[in-house]
Amino acid sequence: MKRYITGFYFSLPVQLFLLHFRRYQVLLIFWYVLFATVDGNFLQPYGADTLYLAPEYWGSVNTSSMTLTGFAIGIFVMSWNITTFILHTKHIRFLATTAQPFLKFCINNAVIPLAFLIFYFIKAIKYDAYEELIPAGRIVVLMSSFLAGFIIAIFIAFGYFFGADKNIYRRLRATITKANEQYSTAILQNPLPLYRGEIRVLWFFSASLGLRKPRDVRHYSEEFLNTIFKQHHLAAVLAVLLAFIFLVSVGYLSDSTIFQIPAAASITIFFAILIGVAGAFSLFLKSWSIPVIILLYLIINALNDSGVIDLRNRAYGINYNKNLPAPAYTKEAIEAMASPANMEADKQAFLQTLNAWKARQKEDKPVMFLIDVSGGGNRSAAFTMNVLQRLDSVTHGTLMQHTMLISGASGGMLGATYFRGLYFEKVKGSNINLQNHQYAENISRDLLNPLFSSFITRDIMGPAATFNAYGYEYVKDRAYAFEQKFNHNTKGVLNKRLADYRDAEMQAQIPTIIFNSTISRDGRKMIVSTRPLRFLMQAYFDTTKVSAKEIDGVDFVSFFKDRNPLNLGVLSALRMNATFPYVLPSVWLPSDPVIDVLDAGLRDNFGQETSFRFVSVFKDWLEQNTSKVIVLQIRDRQSGDWDRPFENNSLSGFITKPLMLMQSNWFRIQTYYQLGQLDYLSESMGQHFYRFSFQYIPSKKDASASLSFHLTASEKKDIAASLNSSINTDTFNEIKRLMENK
Predict the structure, then answer these.
(1) What is the extent of the structural domain holding 396?
(2) Do residues 615 and 370 make contact, with C-beta atoms less than 8 angstroms apart?
(3) Is 357 among the domain residues?
């Protein structure tokens, strides 16, 4: 038994497995990321696991998407083998004198790749069955497609290296044959030592999976052995170069749907390239690796600071011409913009819209809705659309007619803006049934795959391709991919400029939408709408009693009046509002100094601050001209959220708790703050003011839909079913009662 244990331990597969952990641990990081991603422990809130377990191609999980993903995993595995083959050359010199040394190395280096494949299949089958609700027969087809793609990649790689092996053996055959003839005599005179070098190998697998003992290679010159391995190294470098060219090509051609490969495939091929680069750094630079990496970072940073390269994203539609004077983002300039005269002028202009809204109602004192939607990726977008469709049914098709204002953040705004866009098309004469389930399906479609795919193929690897939008030229990046995909999902309904909605909003044909975002420089709101709304730039209060004022918002149209602000694309306004951290880039705006904006949720994830301020400004008009003002809050999480408190009792938790506490409780803090505002407003307006909240409540306590730009089939069903929860059902009934007793 001891002999078998010793033989197993000193077999090449086991020794290579252990060697990876002793040397070049940085290469294991890539395997950790893959394992953790598939397991749902790495970037799970961003939906990273979905990219691998349910990859999409041409808008669905299909055999092509699985084949491409399997092919990419195969490329990654071969890149791993190539790099470790090069790095561990000195420990496996006995393979140099065998036929097809690289093939034998791959077979003996298969412990981690095989473990990953088994792990992946277990996770993918479970995910497809319970999350994507795919039938068993279909799952078998998908898994077979993945395996086929993986095998194709392996065969292509081995075919390439078999050719390299034949050429090497043909050139060095005479030397190898002569050395082999001398082997038997030499080994008798100088037996193979029990252990030599960093690893001891008693057995290894041959190409036919048979067990073989390693051959003593001391009788080959060092130069000869290095010659054999260098030939393989050259072939390996060419293979990594081909992968790099492939990704660059995909980035250049990805406007065509056929080249919009699954994000998992792009990411994995990128990892394959990084492994090759990391191996090259370790092999050639050795201890100089870190200094060289730091130097490269400093060079790239200097090029970025000098403007030679520009990694910043822009808002499509406004004028970034450097020759135009940039508006000053200073305390004095912002205060001048929010002067009492300017605020009053905008207020009077909006009063005309309020009067136009009232004229369109059938009652002398109608009900007014203000709709506030929360952030939350596709989860919130889908829930918002489902709620609005049900509300349209409850109000007998008059929801949008009674709605004056829509505000909010991120995913909720995607759903609400799409619903209003459909209503606008209906107003213009299109045959649209706002309650059609297809619209909820459209807004729920995947946005994550093109984002991550474009991040790899365009932002990192690809050339700086440009495009024209509304008369100006911009660079294609993942923000461009997001807008293109969202436009495709919503059938072009929102492919408009702010100017295209201006007249309809002013005449109250459709509700006014405010696309807030957060200025990273100081946390103020960037208030984006189709007209100046300077009366929202600060909290409303009685100036005879309170003298101090703090401006916490910037009116976009007024501030960028010389930059063609109404030419801003609605899709860009939405993207500025929904800049999901890291997934989408922040948007920089041409001011002096330059400012950039982030997700509106950082400042107000629920949109209520805007609605409460609006009600305060127009309180007198609302009391005189409406019977009720109803704030409809649509949120993607339960109020209070007692079921998911922030807890971390681990040792590391004591260190990270101060950092994570604010992030985990950010939305709760906003809720508590806004409840104070709500209390003040409710007391001020009395029975005239109502506020109802629709909440996404998952059917299972610990199984809510993911906070990302992707939803599984089961998550879509769960979100739709949430409308029938007791809390939401009671709310729908209460609104119906109020509408019937106007």
Answers:
(1) 352-445+493-740
(2) yes
(3) yes
